[in-house]
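Example 9 (inverse folding). The structure is encoded as follows.
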């Protein structure tokens, strides 16, 4: 693991230097990502405002939930962006070259790109949580505790999204193309997670706690921070669920690598 981290750090630094060499393009991409997050937040809050809250969740509470989801989802967009376009490795035979490298294949793939343009999701997610938390009075008396709880929520969510994007990419070893799966497994659940999961039917809630465990990345941490039920101990459960999901996804990745048959090119 230490060698893998060293490899990732070295390759990530080279990627960052390459991406930031075109500063105008970088700042424009970051700006447009910020606009995209703002637009999605505006639509979410408009829906909540028009229905006067959702099952006891006020507009600013949903805003905090949205910030958690955006920040944690932004982490996988930044650091695992290469898995989003994993189809090309399989269709063009690029993964064959990855197999010749001495490092772990997953580390080798994800270290090839760090998409700083997507930092807009993380930056605005943190800003949204700060604004909503201040309005809700979360930082008035126990600012450090509330901040730590939110940070643990973002970490847990990041692990969950990393697990999901890894699992979707690993499906490609058997199906070759996974671009049609991404909206269903990644972006659909991410949009759903911006609303309280208690508003969904039992079948969907069960799905979001098990097969697609996005509940542990935003909804449960939000419940803890907003004192809507579970205590701080639930955050450790969320971290455990995120680590378990990522471990299972990496196992599935290795299983797929062992069954990879190449393109023949």
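The amino acid assigned to each position is listed next.
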């Amino acid at each position: 693991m230490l060698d893998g981290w060293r490899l990732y750090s070295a390759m990530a630094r080279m990627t960052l230097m390459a991406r930031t060499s075109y500063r105008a393009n970088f700042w424009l991409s970051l700006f447009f990502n910020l606009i995209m997050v703002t637009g999605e937040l505006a639509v979410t809050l408009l829906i909540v405002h028009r229905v006067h809250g959702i099952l006891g969740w006020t507009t600013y509470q949903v805003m905090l939930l949205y910030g958690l989801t955006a920040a944690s989802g932004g982490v996988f967009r930044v650091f695992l962006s290469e898995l989003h376009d994993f189809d090309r490795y399989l269709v063009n035979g690029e993964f064959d070259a990855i197999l010749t490298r001495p490092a772990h294949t997953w580390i080798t793939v994800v270290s090839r790109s760090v998409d700083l343009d997507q930092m807009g999701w993380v930056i605005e997610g943190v800003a949204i949580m700060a604004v909503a938390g201040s309005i809700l009075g979360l930082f008035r008396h126990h600012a450090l505790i509330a901040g730590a709880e939110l940070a643990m929520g973002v970490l847990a969510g990041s692990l969950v999204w990393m697990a999901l994007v890894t699992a979707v990419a690993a499906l490609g070893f058997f199906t070759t193309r996974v671009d049609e799966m991404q909206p269903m497994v990644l972006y659909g659940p991410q949009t759903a997670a911006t609303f309280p999961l208690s508003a969904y039917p039992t079948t969907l809630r069960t799905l979001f706690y098990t097969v697609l465990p996005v509940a542990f990345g935003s909804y449960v941490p939000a419940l803890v921070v907003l004192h809507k039920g579970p205590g701080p101990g639930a955050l450790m459960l969320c971290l455990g669920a995120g680590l378990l999901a990522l471990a299972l996804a990496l196992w599935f990745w290795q299983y797929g690598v062992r069954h990879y048959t190449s393109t023949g090119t």
